[in-house]
Write a structure and sequence with these properties.
With 294 residues, the chain is of the alpha+beta class. Helix content is 29%, strand content 28%. Biotin binds next to helix 3, strand 3, strand 6 and strand 7.
């Protein structure tokens, strides 16, 4: 079913009177879209911002809207997601207080360069968090943003292509913002963190969102100008695992080696024990030993 943006808006406004746990969320705690737009300096990203109390997944709605022809830069944001999705078909737990959003891009490029959108988005997230909250952020391949070696943000990119044409790319970003770590299940608690945990206070998600949209647009401009080296350079500067001994668990195999680089495809370049080089396109990375010097 193709949804009309207006009907989605009406439906979710009705269904969103209660929070995910049945508790009402006070107005003061909600994201106020007009506060995000106030002083928003981007020209493309953030127009429009479609706000929902509750959605299955912002990526699903953004993809649906992209199929209907919504313009590049449109943003879908929800207070909570009931079917949030992560990489490798995992569930993404999305409690109220987080920042869950998806951005529609229509880059004039071939599918080969689509992974750059994920790379530039993870740089934008990492830099927004470090600038706004003076927290040291790092990136763990493929696109986890970490604070104190714990995951604070993840990115899920989905696209539609027709032959060599990219119809659209939806970049879904989840930032663990204003919730207690106990809101996450036990298996995620020890490897994750939230801005609230790190700062000892709640943050204004409107400001975080505004700055994130602005910085994402700045990096998107580098992409449009073909300045891939700039994006990759900043990404490498944030990559905590480069030079380290790592293990990558993919669908079919586990590979151990030294992480030496990532390339423009977003592939991880490993040097294996026998000295050969391997490119890995997807999987989970575990750092076995940190690099001594970076
Ligand atoms: C990951 O690290 O596995 C990626 C997580 C991506 C989560 C975000 S939250 C907003 C958007 N909607 C989704 O269903 N997923 C992404």
């Amino acid at each position: 079913m193709i949804m009309n943006p207006k009907s989605i808006h009406r439906t979710t406004c009705q269904m969103s009177l209660l929070g995910s746990d049945g508790q009402t969320m006070s107005n003061a705690q909600r994201i106020e879209p007009s506060k995000v737009r106030e002083g928003l300096r981007s020209k493309i990203v953030g127009y429009p911002i479609l706000y929902f109390r509750k959605l299955p997944s912002t990526n699903d709605v953004a993809k649906e809207l992209a199929l209907q022809g919504i313009n590049e830069g449109a943003v879908v944001v929800a207070e909570t997601q009931t079917k949030g999705r992560g990489r490798l078909e995992r569930k993404w737990i999305s409690p109220e207080g987080g920042l869950w959003l998806s951005i529609v891009f229509r880059p004039k490029t071939t599918p080969k360069y689509a992974p750059m959108l994920t790379l530039l988005s993870s740089v934008a997230v990492a830099k927004t968090i470090s600038k706004e909250f003076r927290l040291r952020t790092e990136i763990k391949w493929p696109n986890d943003v970490l604070v104190n070696m714990k995951k604070i943000s993840g990115i899920l990119t989905e696209s539609r292509t027709t032959g060599e044409i990219v119809d659209f790319i939806v970049v879904g970003i989840g930032v663990n913002a204003n919730f207690d770590i106990d809101a996450l299940p036990a298996h995620l608690k020890y490897s994750s963190t939230t801005l609230k945990e790190e700062l000892g206070r709640e943050i204004e998600r409107e400001i975080l969102l505004r700055r994130l949209l602005e910085l994402t647009e700045s990096y998107y401009k580098f992409f449009q100008e073909g300045q891939f080296g700039h994006i990759l350079g900043d990404w490498r500067g944030l990559a905590c695992f480069l030079g380290s001994r790592v293990e990558v668990e993919g669908d079919r195999e586990k590979i151990e080696g030294q992480a030496v680089d990532i390339d423009a495809d977003g592939a991880l370049v490993l040097t294996l024990r026998d000295g050969t080089t391997r490119r890995v396109l997807s999987g989970d990375l575990r750092i076995l030993g940190r690099a001594e010097l970076r």
